[in-house]
Amino acid sequence: MKSINLNIAPIGKNREEMIGEYILEHGATVRGAAAYFGISKSTVHKDVSSRLRRTDHELYVRVKEVLDKNKAERHIRGGEATRRKYMIRRQYSQNQSKTAL
What we know:
Blueprint: H1 15-26, H2 30-37, H3 41-55, H4 57-100
Helix pairs in contact: 1-3, 1-4, 2-3, 3-4
């Protein structure tokens, strides 16, 4: 994923608006937006929960819906990651036992 330099923002665009638009367009999580923009998760959260609310309330409401959806699905993504982890471990151990024979 390519990151973007927020110091070269388009004229008239605030950082929080750019982050909010990115989250809407990509359905991104706070973590994903932080990685894309090269800033901390805390900064993204502060920008979209406080600053965006004051600068562009309509965008804030739409971004909040995406983030609430992501939060509601968080336990599912975590469970999937755990399932993949153990599946890979099982495949690795099966391959190791086959090569030992």
